[in-house]
Amino acid sequence: MSLQSNTGAPLIALRGVTKTYFAGRPNELEILHGIDLAVWPGEFVAIVGESGSGKSTIMNIIGALDRPTGGSYLLGGVDVERASDRQLSAIRNRKIGFVFQTFNLIGRTSAQKNVELPLLYAGVPARQRSARARELLELVGMSERAKHQPNELSGGQK
Ligand SMILES: Nc1ncnc2c1ncn2[C@@H]1O[C@H](COP(=O)(O)OP(=O)(O)OP(=O)(O)O)[C@@H](O)[C@H]1O
Ligand SMILES: [Mg+2]
């Protein structure tokens, strides 16, 4: 899984990660059974598996949105398990970009404003936010849809 890299450590390092839902017997349901994964800077990695196999579960852990039941997870050398809420917020805002299976767009808010939102949290001034969001929408051919709300967009546009 890992390519050669001249930096010392992988960017994303999972060791023996397990995830159990319905924690507590008799309904315990272990979804991840001890995942070891190393992703190095510059790598492009796809996680593939059948429906219900645990891809979203592991992505939620990698994205610092959920915690593993067991094992360890280091992101850029930071132990996510031990990170403070403040550190986790910074990680989510600056280190991780996430396109969810269920888009999580804000309804009754334009595509433009939805794209601006993470920049707002990052403290980017209004004019720069707006310009950057326009640029990004243009990149994906959505300049003409900037004012549309999520329910006025196609699945792919969302
Ligand atoms: N909150 C939960 N509580 C209990 N079981 C859950 C929960 N979330 C997911 N599961 C179960 O965990 C398994 C893995 O779910 P997950 O969403 O990670 O699958 P997936 O690989 O992303 O599937 P898909 O390709 O359909 O999106 C599924 O069998 C699901 O039923
Ligand atoms: Mg999924």
Would you write up a description of this structure?
With 158 residues, the chain is of the alpha+beta class. The protein has two domains: 12-94, Rossmann fold (3-Layer(aba) Sandwich), CATH 3.40.50.300; 111-152, no CATH class. The protein contains four helices and four strands; from the N terminus they run ββαββααα. The protein has helices spanning 55-62, 85-94, 111-121, 126-139, and strands spanning 12-21, 29-39, 70-75, 78-79. Strands 2-1-3-4 form a four-stranded antiparallel sheet, with helices on one face. The relative contact order is 0.12. The model is unreliable at 1-6 (pLDDT under 50). The structure holds adenosine-5'-triphosphate (ATP) and magnesium ion (MG). Magnesium ion is lined by residues 55-56, 101.
CATH topology group of the largest domain: Rossmann fold
| Strand percent estimate | 15-25%
Q: How many β-strand stretches? A: 4
Query: In which order are the strands of the major sheet placed?
Result: 2-1-3-4
Shape: globular
Small-molecule binders here are: adenosine-5'-triphosphate, magnesium ion
Task: Give the CATH level 1 class of the largest domain.
Answer: Alpha Beta
Q: Which CATH architecture of the largest domain?
A: 3-Layer(aba) Sandwich
Q: What is the average of the pLDDT values?
A: 91
The low-confidence parts are 1-6
What is the fourth-level CATH superfamily of the largest domain? Answer: P-loop containing nucleotide triphosphate hydrolases
Structural class: alpha+beta
Strand and helix map with partners:
Elements: E1 12-21, E2 29-39, H1 55-62, E3 70-75, E4 78-79, H2 85-94, H3 111-121, H4 126-139
Antiparallel strand pairs: 1-2, 1-3, 3-4
Helix pairs in contact: 3-4
Bound molecules: adenosine-5'-triphosphate and magnesium ion.
